[in-house]
Specification:
The chain contains 8 helices and 9 strands. By secondary structure, the protein is of the alpha/beta class. The N and C termini lie far apart (36 Å).
């Protein structure tokens, strides 16, 4: 419990520093990232700061290695099925192209990219497989898809199509039944093996 509190305190501290760094103020977030990893965390994730100032990714990668850096992108889909990146909890649209940003993040040293389709968040109607395919075709680093999982079949469909891919879910493991009652659950070992049979 004490370690969890220390990690949370350090994460809160680095979050404030990263927000300042995204405004081009020189701060050593790389040292803070190193401290977080030293507390037992395997990875750190950054979002807005990495988009506004991708040099931060390189600075952190030099200290903890790119395998420990996850960049999270919030995505919205337009009426014409184009994808755009949004920051600050979906309130500010990134002006550049989604595809170019993916390559830039990879080039600066991101070890993994989590793509969260905001439109699908909590809908539980399945992942956007077209989005997953687009991201997979652009970058070579690991990716995780988030937004839309409503059943284990949705996860299975994603894995069946793309083999090695991260499948993130939230509502699936919390809400159950017609009335979305809160019931925390998680698939047992046998169910997880079944999801990955084709690997």
């Amino acid at each position: 419990m004490r370690t969890q509190r220390r990690v949370f305190e350090k994460l809160s501290e680095i979050e404030n520093k990263v927000e300042l760094a995204s405004e081009k103020i020189e701060l050593s977030v790389a040292d803070d990232a190193k401290k977080i990893i030293s507390l037992g965390c395997e990875k750190i994730s950054i979002s807005n700061a990495a988009i506004e100032n991708p040099e931060i990714i390189s600075d952190i990668a030099k200290v903890i290695g790119r395998q420990s850096i996850v960049v999270i992108l919030d995505i919205k889909k337009s009426f014409l099925s184009n994808y755009s990146v949004w920051t600050l909890n979906g309130n500010k649209k990134y002006n550049g192209k989604f595809e170019s940003l993916l390559l830039k993040l990879q080039d600066y040293g991101a070890g993994e990219i989590v793509v969260n389709l905001i439109d699908n968040d909590g809908v539980m109607q399945g992942y956007d497989l077209n989005l997953a395919e687009k991201v997979r075709s652009i970058v070579d680093i690991p990716i995780t898809i988030l937004g839309g999982a409503g059943s284990l079949d949705h996860i299975k469909s994603l894995i069946d199509k793309f083999s090695i891919i991260g499948a993130a879910a939230g509502s699936l493991f919390v809400f159950k039944g017609k009335y979305k009652a809160v019931l925390i659950n998680y698939p047992n070992f046998d169910k997880k093996i079944e999801l990955c049979k084709k690997l």
